[in-house]
Design brief:
Shape of chain B: globular
Largest sheet of chain B: none
Distance between the termini of chain A: 30 Å
Shape of chain A: elongated
Helix content of chain A: 55-70%
Largest interface: A-B, 41 and 49 residues
Distance between the termini of chain B: 13 Å
Strand content of chain B: under 5%
Strand content of chain A: under 5%
Helix content of chain B: over 70%
Oligomer: heterodimer
Number of helices of chain B: 13
Order of helices and strands of chain A: EEHHHHHHHHH
Strand order of the largest sheet of chain A: 1-2
Number of strands of chain B: 0
Structural class of chain A: mainly alpha
Amino acid sequence: MTLFGHKAPLTAQFGLAIVAIDLLVAVFGPWLAPYGQSQSVGDTWGAPSAQMLLGADQIGRDMLTRLIYGARTTIGIAACTTILSFFIGITLGFTAAVGGAWADILLSRLVDIMLSIPQLILALIILGVFGSSIPVLIVTIAVLDSTRVFRLARALGKNLTVLEFVEVARMRGEGMWWVISKEILPNAMAPLVSEFGLRFCFNFLFVATLSFLGIGVQPPYADWGGMVRENAAAINFGLLAPLYPAIAIALLTVAVNLIVDWLLSIDARPSGAQAEM
Amino acid sequence: MGRLIATRAGLGLLTLLAVSILIFVCTQILPGDVASTVLGQQATPDALRVFRAELGLDKPAYVRYFNWLFGVLHGDFGRSLTNQRDIIEELVPRFANTMFLAAYTALIAVPLAVGLGIFSAIREGRFSDRLVNVVTLIAISVPEFFVGYLLIIFFAIDLGWFPSLATVFPGMGVGERFYVATLPAITLTLVVAAHMLRMTRNSVLSIMSTPYIEMAFLKGLSRGRVVMWHALPNAAGPIISIVALDLAYLVVGVVVVEVVFVYPGVGQYMVDAVAKRDVPVVQACGLVFAAVYVTLNTLADIAAILVNPRLRHLR
C-alpha cells in the first residue's frame, strides 16, 4: 500500500493488516461468530476442539465468539471515546486560541490541574462516584483524554491565528465559529489526524485496563479487558484462557503504534505540532 | 538557585492544593445530595435535615472543603462506608506495601534501564541496539496485565520459581517479602524500564551530534570511551529527570499490577472501593496517589535544576 507516494514498510503493512482484520471483525461480528455472545456451549475452560477453536471460557461460553463480540465492544467504546474527546478538545482548544485571553487562562489552568494527577487515578475517582456504565465510561475517558487534545489544538490554533488569511477573515467581519471551522481547522488537520491514531490507541488500552480492573464494561457484555479478568483464575491450572483476549489487545496496540510510527516518519510534523511535545 | 528551588517547591504545594480541590469537587459536589441517596425516596424532610446536619452537609461547600482538608492533614480520612472502619488504619500498612513494591521495582529498573540505554547508545545501529529497540517498543505498547500473566504462566506455573499470588501479611520476614514481590516487581520493571531506556538512549545520542564529541572521535578515542567520559556527563541532567518522571508513572502502574498479583497495596484497596462505590475510601486513596505523584514530579524538576546549571537562572 502507498500513501502520498510513500510505500509502507513491512512493519506498517503488518499493522494495517491487523487493524483491517480487527475492524472487519468489529463491524461484522454477529455474522461471523459461531455461537451467541452469552450462550453456554461447553465445559468450564473446555479444551480447544473443531467446534470451539479456542476452547471455552469460565462458564463454558465459546472463547472465539466472545473474542469476536469483544472486538465490537472494546474497539467501539474506544472509537466513540476518541471521537468525543477530539470534539471537546478541538472545540475548547480553538476557543482558547482564538477567543479572549480570559478564556485561554481559565481553560489552560483547568487542564493543567487535571494533567497534574495521573489519568487512571482521576478516572477511578469519577467512576467510584458515578458507578460504571458504558455512557459514564465513554464520557469520563473522553473528558480526561480531551485535555491532551486541548493542548495540541490550542498550540496549533495559536500558530495559525497570527497568519494573514485568518487576520483577513476576521477583518471581513466573520464570526469566531466561521474562523475556526473554515480557516483554522482545515490547516490543523494533518497533525490532528496522526494524533487521532495515538489517542485511539491510548484510549483503547485505557478502556481495556479499566475493564480488567472490573470497573469498566460490566457483564454480560463481552469485552477484551473484562475477559482477561474473568478467565484469570484459569492460569493457576496452567491454561491459556486469559492470554487470548490479552494477546488481542496487545496485537491491536502494537499494530496501531507501527502505523503511527510510519505516518510520523512521512509527515515531519508541521509547525504547530511542535509546541505540544 | 535557592530561590528558584523554593519557587518550584511552592508551585508544587499550590498544585497539591488545586488537586485537593478538584478531588473534593469530584467526590463531594458532583454527586449531588448524598442524604437523599442514602435515605432513599421515602425519607421525611425531618430525617433528611437531621442526616444532613450529622454529615455536615448543611454547611456551604467551602466550609466543608476546609473542614475536610483540616481532617486530612491530621490523618482523619473518615470512615469506610462498607465496613465502618477508620480509613487511615487500613491505609497506612497498605501504603507501606505499595511503597515497598515501588522501591523494589526502582532498585531493579533504574540501573537496568540506564545501563542498557547507555549500552544501546554505544552500539547504535548494530543488531543488539535494534533488538533492544524492538523489545522496548513492544513492552511499551502492551498492557501491564498481559506482561503480568505471561510472567505468571512462565515463572510461577511452568517453572514454579515464584508464587503466582503476592500475599503479604504483617510480621512477614524481609527476605520473604522480597521473594514474594519479585514477580510484580519484574512486571512493573518491564513496563517502566522500557520508556526509561529509550529516553536514556535518545538523550545520550542527542549529545553525540555536538562538535566537541566529533573532536573526541577525531582524537582517535574509542566509541565506548567517548560515550562514557564525554557524552554521559552532559546527558546526566535529562536522564535524571526522566528517571524521576518515570518513577512518578510507576506509582500508577502499581494499581494494575497489584490487582494482577492480588498484592495488598493502596491500588488494590482503591479499585475494590471503586467497585463497591465506597466514596470516602476512593477519595482518600486518590488523594494519596495524587500527592505522591505531584511530589515526585516536583522532585524531578528540582533535581533537573540542581543538575543542569543552565536552568538555574530565570530568563
